[in-house]
Amino acid sequence: MSARHRTTIAAFLPEGSDELAGGGGAAPDAAAQAAAAEAATAKKAHDDLPQWARDSLKDANDQAAKARIRIKELEPLAAEAKTLKDAQLSETERTTKQRDDATARADAADHRVLVLEVASAKGLTPAQAKRLQGKTKEELEADADDLLANFAPPADGTKDATTLRRRPAETLRPGGGNTADAAEETDPIKLASKVQRRY
C-alpha cells in the first residue's frame, strides 16, 4: 500500500489504531512512520474542516465505496451480456445470409422458368433455350426472335453454309442378311463344307 493511501485511510481511523503499522504489533518501519505522520497531518487538516464539509466528504466517500462494490457485482453480468450480444449478432448475421441465399435461389429459379416459358412459346429447343439472354420477358422474347432469325433454315429449302447440320437418317436393314439365302441351306454338313479350312 502506498504512503498516499495510508495517509487517506489513517485520516478516518481512530487515534492510536495500529492497523496501518502492518503485521499486528510489529515495529513500524520508516515508511510506516512517515505514513503515520502524514495521516496525523491529514486528520488534523480534516478536523480543521467545517462540519458540513466533513459530512459532505464522508457522504462522497461512502457513495464511492458503494459504487465500487456495485461495479464489482456488475462486471460478471456485463461480460455475460457482451457474450450474449456477440452470439445474437452472429445468429443475426447467419440468418441474414440464409435469407439472402434463399432470395438469390428463388430469383434464379424464377428466371429459369421465364426462360423456359419463352423458349416453349417460340418453339426453341432446350439447347437454344440455354442461350437466351435477358432479365425480363420482353428481353428474352426479343433474343429468341433474334436467335430464330439468325439460325433458322431458309424458307425456300435450299441449303447454305448457315443451315444447321443435322445427323443423316439411318437406313437400317435386318441383321440376318438376305432371308431367301438363309432358307435354302439348313443342313449343317453342307454349311460346314462351305467354310474354308486352313491347314
Can you put this structure into words, describing what you see?
The structure is a single chain. The chain has 199 residues and is mostly helical. Among the domains are: 1-48; 107-151, no CATH class. 65% of the residues lie in helices and 0% in strands. The chain contains 7 helices and no strands. It has helices at residues 3-10, 30-47, 51-122, 126-129, 137-151, 179-184, 188-194. Helix 1 crosses helix 2 and helix 3 (51-122) packs parallel to helix 5. The longest helix has 72 residues, at 51-122. The radius of gyration is 51 Å and the shape is elongated. The chain starts with a helix and ends in a 5-residue tail after the last helix. The model is unreliable at 22-27 (pLDDT under 50).
Features:
199 residues; mainly alpha; 7 helices; 65% helix; 0% strand; elongated
